Amino acid sequence: xxxxxxxxxxRFVLLWTGREFPLYCRLAVESLLQVDDRCEVEIHLFGQExxxxxxxxxxxxxxxxxxxxxxxxxxxxxxxxxxxxxKALYSRIPASARSAQSNLLRYAILYxxxxxxxxxxxxxxxxxxxxxxxxxxxxxxxVWKVNEARVEGRREPWMVGPTLSYVAAYALSRGWxxxxxxxxxxxxxxxxxxxxxxxxxxxxxxxGAEPRSxxxxxxxxxxxxxxxxxxxALGPTLVSQAWxxxxxxxxxxxxxxxxxxxxxxxxxxxxxxAVTPPEDALLVHYVNSNHRRELERLTVGEIEAKxxxxxxxxxxxxxxxxxxxxxxxxxxxxRLHRPPARLADAGEKGPER
Length: 353
Known about the structure:
Layout: E1 11-16, H1 23-35, E2 40-45, H2 57-60, E3 65-69, H3 72-77, H4 83-91, H5 98-113, E4 115-118, E5 122-124, E6 136-144, H6 147-151, H7 160-178, H8 188-197, E7 198-209, H9 214-223, H10 236-245, E8 251-253, H11 255-258, E9 283-285, H12 292-296, H13 300-305, H14 311-323, H15 330-336, E10 344-345
Parallel strand pairs: 1-2, 1-4, 2-3, 3-10, 6-8
Antiparallel strand pairs: 4-7, 5-9, 6-7
Helix pairs in contact: 1-14, 5-9, 7-8, 9-10
């Protein structure tokens, strides 16, 4: 039997802005290249660029990695008739709302180029080739039932039960993890508590789509009606609402694929005994926003020292060794400090569409 014809390009799309490029960002790219020897990785650069970041330049000489300098205006121009209203919406997003800006930009780039959008706070476990025949795909995760209502400023009696269950489950799991025990996720008491505080919701840290995807267009159109200042309004809330309104042309994947640990329990990746990913997990999404300080200061030495510990460090150690970062040779050391090279402008060079 012939395999389904791919509709989504085997291309990972990531976005970056800023002068820093921490080690964890390099590890995300290296892990993608390691799990699939046929994929391409595009990193779209907006605004400031990490011209002096030591973990940025080694990726420039990597095969199958492209850096494209672009701008919000160029990204929105590629959406055709939606360009003008999207630019107007983007102008209303506060400069401090980086996540809202990123949400809108990722939809625009994905609509134009197609591929698989990823946040940088991931480590790939397997390739995505079996998903490329879908017109689009998105994954669900387990989230706190109360969260959306809380962001909207609502305070209602039904919120008490899920909140108490959330606090109890977190305290029990965190305490057990701090004591060095294995995850309690499979225990009956935590399963009961999790069922009481959580519900499935879609997340946009991983989005796959063919060029000019009907689903991504629905996201862009729905974004024009969303509040650019409300947290999550252009992110998970928008994706969930768009899917509920029209489920055609998009595959919804269970939480095991991308978010097998809820964001509440992301500490399990960094402390206690290592958790075991499900067999069908494609990546580890370890939620940078919950661990920003430790990830920005992450070093190769720390990874090597903790390589037999929590899952993040085990996986990162493997990525580093396969990429030659740990116990690097003199040649690798020289690559880390090579002078900046000229980046490709989006209109000059880069993978063909």
